[in-house]
Structures are given as structure tokens and as C-alpha cells.
Protein 1
Amino acid sequence: MKKLAFAVSFFVVGIFAFAPAVARAQENARTIVNAEWVVEAQGAHSEAFSVKQQSTLKAGVKAVKNADKGFRVRVVNAEDVISCRVTGGTCRELPSWKQDVKKALTKSSQIPPGNWAFLVENYQNIINKMTVRVFVSVKE
């Protein structure tokens, strides 16, 4: 019984010691997007953001409605958002962030300093708008 009490007290103390570190880590992250986006058929939706130094970008995108054909997620140079949608247009993007998604995407990676845009494209759907739940944060 004493061993169980010791284990429980050790666990509780560990939680209280760890919780402030987790809270500080979350405080340092800046939320870019936390919303549902409705994206027109063959359209795109984006949100621009800037980072001054190499940072960690975390994103989660989940299909909500009419997204069963899939969608594309990209991080592109903020100046190139419109031209990225045009065949042959200038599109400076982070290759590791260009992904075709069926249901959901959760990703985290380092990005260089600059002006960026998180872009979701409804490129597969030629008739319906789609709705996706988007969360993006950056920690500098």
C-alpha cells in the first residue's frame, strides 16, 4: 500500500512540475488560424503570416463537408499566393508542405524566416464548396 501511495504522489508531483513547462510552450506559440474555412469549388483559401527567424509551424486540417475527393495543403511565399494557382505562375513554396490530403493532416516542421501563406486548395471538386477545419500556429 505504501508503494502505491508513493507511486501516486510521485505521479502527481511530476504532473505539477511538468504542467508549467507545457503551458509556457503553448504561450510562446502564436495562433495564425483557428477556424472553419469554406473553399469554393476549384478555389483556394489562405492566411498570410510572417516569421522573423526560423520557426516551428504546426498545422491541422480536417475535412468537414464536401471534401471527400480530397484537397491540397501548401505553404507558399505570401507574394505568390495568386500566381501559385496559375499554371506556369511563380510559386515559391516549401516543398515539404505541399501535400494532397484525403481526410485530415497534422504536421509540424521548421520554416525559414519570411512572409508565408498557409493555403488550402479545393482543386479536386468542380461542383461543390468544401468546408475544412483549420488550425495553424507558429512558435518563433
Protein 2
Amino acid sequence: MRKFILIAALAFFGMYGFSQQLAPSQVPQNVKDRLQAKFPQTIEIPVDWSKEQGNYKASLTIMDSPAFMVLDSLGRTVRIERKIHESYLPKKAKAKLYKLDPNYTVVNVMQVTDSKEKISYKAVVKITNNFSFDTEGNTIPAVK
């Protein structure tokens, strides 16, 4: 399971590595204005800017949690990602995770709002399952 967490972390940092860091002066004013309209606290808190697939990505902290807002060059919202507490995951999602592993552990949950205000969730979860296989690779009941 450590490998899974390591791979997830590498994927996150790999995506971060593909983004190009920008100075605030390199970000169009209409993009900064849109961010400020959505998150007025950005007047007082630092915002890190990067370029991601031709869009502008603002990284900030809201209520001690990381958040990201991705905007196109016209200042339109592409998506907003906010780290949330696992208790905000939908009950159906929690039930599915429980079915996979009653002892699952949530590592991280992000609430993603797309340009049409549709909300989805990204969750990094530690799940421990034990499998037993025969010599041909078929799953067999675990030996207790």
C-alpha cells in the first residue's frame, strides 16, 4: 500500500512539475480580477501562479486548506479544487469504500467544481486487501 501512496504522490508532483511557474505580473489582470471576485481574501493572502495546459492556475490557502482555481486567458473558470474533510464525501461514496475495505483510510479529499458548477470529488484512499492466488493466477479464498 505504501507503493500506492508513493505513486499517487509522484503523480501529483509530476503534474505540478509540468506546470510553469509565473510571477503575478505575468498573469492577465482579468484573470486576477476573476480570482479576486471568487475569493476576496486573495487581496490579503499570497497566491502562487502557474500555467497549466494553456490555462492559469492559482494556488492559495483557504481556511488553512489548499485550494486551486484554474482559469482560461479570458478569466473564465475552468475548475476549482478545494481540500475538504472526509466527512463531506457523499454517503454513497463512503459506502462504496467501506464495501472495498471496512478499514479504509482517507488520505486526502478534494472537491472539484467545474465550469458548469458541477461538483465531483477526488479522494486518495488507503485500502488494504489481501488476495490469494493459485499457480495459474486465479483468485482463491484467502487462507486463514
